[in-house]
Predict the 3D structure of the following.
Amino acid sequence: MPSQMIRFRNANGEELAARLELPASQRPYAFALFAHCFTCNKNLAAVRNISRALNLRGIAVLRFDFTGLGESEGDFGNTNFSSNVEDLVQAARYLEEHHQAPELLVGHSLGGAAAICAAHELPFVKAVATIGAPYAPGHVSHLLKEERDEIEKKGVAEASIGGQPFTVKKHFLEDIREQNLEPKLKNLGRALLILHSPQDRTVAIENAARMYHAARHPKSFISLDGAGHLLPEKEDSRYAGEMIAAWVSRYVQRPEKKALKVDKQVAVRLGQEGFTTEIMVRHHSLTADEPEPVGGNDYGPSPYELVTAGLGACTAMTLQMYARRKKWPLKEVRVQLEHFKDHAEDSEKAEDASSRIDHFSRIIEIDGELDDTQRRKLLEIANKCPVHRTLNSPVEIHTELK
């Protein structure tokens, strides 16, 4: 099942649009809530990449549009920082009622400041991660420096933020000036991760230093060296997502360390863009992709490379199991492999029987004081490893489309 488009209501009864991203297995062990940056929306590429990284760790992510932005109802001009915090709280309550209460809040830029404030109203939250967040929410007013005088005098002005026109009213400036994160940080009472780029020209790195100083442990900092404020480069947002996913595992634990109950042994998911594919095998996660020359992001091995890796792993395991049973001094097994057919070309000729002839080259190196008889036997055993036998046997694949 792909990501779910859902709607929930804010405190004023307006519908807010959201997407719930589930792991490929559809069996998340925890939920996270994502707060996007000021005047952005839930579909920002960085938001999607970070959500994917959490999905690969078995965490579901709800990303939504704040009131008046993206696909959500309401007038942005009637919103302020306090209403954004309330939107976050309402989103968390929706998850609590319909799925599972979120234990992780992730906030980007001003969304990070909102996440810190919202956590105080959500006792089930165990961890908060911020990306490029300002120490003082009022910092965002510098984006309105050209319109500030007009807003103060007339009470409203049209502002261009990120190339998009927005109506900003005086109550927005008044509300954001009143916000003070220092006591919120000092009394957060949750694990805090601060991610920030030293080269951030929108929210300077000093903001991260002040946040870290104000917060109490457990707190962590990760430098997003070279990244822009909105993480426009996919490598930066992917890295940020992986770091958050790794960090939060210390604070949001799986209920029990055993395989997730899925309908099949392996679950795979790919969206409508690119070839970066999420794979869940029990509680393990993998990423498959294609090389950049054929349109992929090269974030993981290709499907044929995964098959080849399976043959190599099975070869090494089978040899060691046999040698251990025989009590032979086999110290180490190294296997080098290569597959002789291009996956992209094969896909284009899927109905051509002649395109389905596969060739694997396998070189096995073994260390240990083994005589020639033992070495010959190990070569024989290598050719009998289960994956080898599967690849050499007729295979039936039963497929149904739902």
Summary: The longest helix spans residues 303-326.
